[in-house]
Amino acid sequence: MAEAGGGKERLLRAAVDYVAANGVGERSLREIAAALGTSHRMLIYHFGSKEGLFVEVVRTMEDRQRDLLAELTAVEGDPIEAARRFWARLADPELWPHERLFFELYGRALQGDPAALPLLDGIVDTWVTALAQPLEQLGFAPEAARSQARLGLAVARGLLLDLLATGDRAGVDAAMERFTQMYAATLPRGRR
User: Fold this and answer.
1) What is the pLDDT of residues 66-122, one digit of tens each?
2) What is the extent of the structural domain holding 38?
3) What is the pTM assigned to this prediction?
4) Cα separation of 6 and 8, whole Å?
């Protein structure tokens, strides 16, 4: 059975939208397939399993977020303002269903769940590379840029987890602003 509109990519786009609107909860693959306008067999064919579909949804969202970071970095010119705008987007309640799925799968992968393990491929390094590149352009040595990028990634993920657990947007925004100010102090002169 051929899927109209690009098969796997169409289903993945629909799944990303579905997760944004509904979360994932305890829905079966059949329920998800029906909501996407396909069969569970097509989802298994393209993604291997429900977890395989969810891993691809997370990867797609991570790609979109890295694209947004690159766009903000290029457009803003001010790395601190780009960081603030990026955080505002990440902390937007619209993304919470995707972020909950991210942390759920991340935890399952860390526990050795074979279906979730593929998520770990590049889950840190891809972001460290994306975050380090603009730091190098600002004058950081490559090793220092990667270290700074890893710290920024850890802070952002930690604050997102805090936000999802507590709903305290004001508190996490204040903490991120504090981190952003400390980060600004590390920038080479003339870039702050």
Assistant:
1) 999 889 888 877 888 889 999 999 999 999 999 998 999 999 999 999 999 999 999
2) 1-48
3) 0.85
4) 6
Q: Are 34 and 98 in contact (CB under 8 A)?
A: no
Query: In the structure encoding, which two tokens stand for residue 160, read together?
Result: 């997102």
Helix, strand, coil % in the chain, rounded to nearest 5: 75, 0, 25
Token match 């309640």: residue? Answer: 93
Distance CA 51, CA 57 (A): 10
Q: Where are the beta strands (DSSP E) in the chain?
A: none
Q: For residue 173, what are its two tokens?
A: 């925004």
Ranges under pLDDT 50 in the chain: 1-5, 192
* CB neighbour list of residue 59: distance below 8 Å, 6 or more residues apart: 119
Q: Where are the alpha helices (DSSP H) in the chain?
A: 8-22, 29-36, 40-47, 50-76, 79-90, 96-110, 125-137, 142-166, 169-184
Which CATH number fits the domain that encloses residue 21? 1.10.10.60
Of the candidates 63, 86, 75, 110, the residue with the CA atom closest to the CA atom of residue 176: 86
pLDDT, position 138 = 85
Six-digit token pair at 191?
A: 């870039």
Domain CATH number, residue 154: 1.10.357.10
**Residue 23: its pLDDT value, please?**
76
Output the six-digit token pair for 23.
């979360």
Q: Position 102: which residue type?
A: F
